[in-house]
Design a protein that fits this description.
20% strand; 3 domains; alpha+beta
């Protein structure tokens, strides 16, 4: 079963959606006379996809995964009850009017299906269970076997998280892999606590990194100011799990590893500005990405040219 709508997604529209290896963050804009497969398959990585259409779909689409995973779907715009239907385990789920930023949390083993018959805009988070199990083990709550199914629920955390990233989804260069890892951890911890039915409170270590771990972590971050390093690499170098490392780093430095890296990039840019009157190629390359600009300006309170004139 195929829709006669399909995607135009700022990449070649000739390739079918299911055959292309998608980036971890993606913006899919469906237009008339496009087509998408009726079965969308997720992989083994955490991904974020914004999928929107100005005219809806003719047929139902079903989301599945090659590995155990959760689907978190957050509506950006409203949908009337008559214009949207959901299926879980092939059973139709009663659906009320969908207000903006309502969320669905469903295990992909249930092969959730959806039919939006009019214009829609959703942000889809594909969350592999392995990452959730790792966080659960680190919090000493053990793996969670079953997550509560949620359909069209008001979840303020998911709504705020979606609002915070919405302007950047699909923007070239966003996010750094390190930032994506932190988003995955934040989302995973929330899903565990709200939908995992934990039977005991998590055990959270508040200690920081040891001296050698602090030095090694900052060395690696300083050597990778491009932002391409992963949280898993930093954690492995320090002999810690990913979530344990993330908490310990923040306890030691007062900020996340991603925020530390961004601040170091800003400091490096300021150093370059201090030593040149013109915008040198090195600086231009460092400020090329939209993410760098979006994080740079609020942090120093003025544009680079103005900062250079002032200092």
């Amino acid at each position: 079963m195929r829709s006669n709508l399909a995607y135009d997604r700022r990449r070649s529209a000739a390739a079918p959606l299911a055959s292309v290896v998608d980036p971890p963050v993606n913006h899919v804009h469906l237009k008339e006379r496009s087509s998408i497969p009726s079965l969308l398959r997720g992989g083994d990585a955490f991904t974020i996809t914004r999928m929107e259409s100005s005219s809806g779909l003719d047929d139902r689409i079903t989301k599945v995964s090659s590995v155990p995973a959760l689907l978190v779907a957050v509506s950006v715009t409203s949908l009337t009850r008559a214009d949207c239907q959901f299926w879980v385990d092939d059973k139709l789920v009663p659906t009320p009017h969908i207000a903006p930023f309502r969320s669905n949390v469903i295990d992909l083993d249930a092969q959730p299906g959806c039919w939006p018959g009019s214009a829609f805009d959703y942000v889809l988070f594909h969350v592999p269970r392995k990452g959730l199990d790792d966080v659960a083990a680190d919090l000493a709550v053990g793996p969670v076997e079953t997550y509560r199914v949620s359909v069209v629920e008001e979840d303020l955390v998911l709504a705020q998280l979606t609002k915070s990233i919405l302007p950047y989804i699909g923007r070239q260069g966003w996010p750094f892999p390190l930032a994506l890892d932190h988003l995955n951890l934040i989302l995973g911890a929330h899903l565990l606590q709200k939908y995992g039915g934990l039977r005991k409170p998590p055990t959270i270590s508040l200690g920081g990194l040891g001296p050698l771990q602090k030095r090694r972590a900052t060395e690696l971050l300083s050597e990778n100011l491009s932002g391409r390093i992963r949280l898993s690499q930093l954690a492995a170098e320090c002999g810690l799990s990913i979530s344990h490392f993330a908490r310990s780093f923040k306890a030691s430095f007062g900020v996340s590893a991603h925020r530390w890296l961004v601040q170091r990039r800003i400091e490096r840019s300021q150093e370059l500005l201090m030593h040149t009157r013109s915008r040198c190629p090195t600086l231009r390359n460092r400020q090329a990405s939209d993410q760098g600009r979006s994080l740079h300006l609020p942090s120093i309170g003025r544009r680079p040219g103005r900062w250079r004139r002032d200092y």
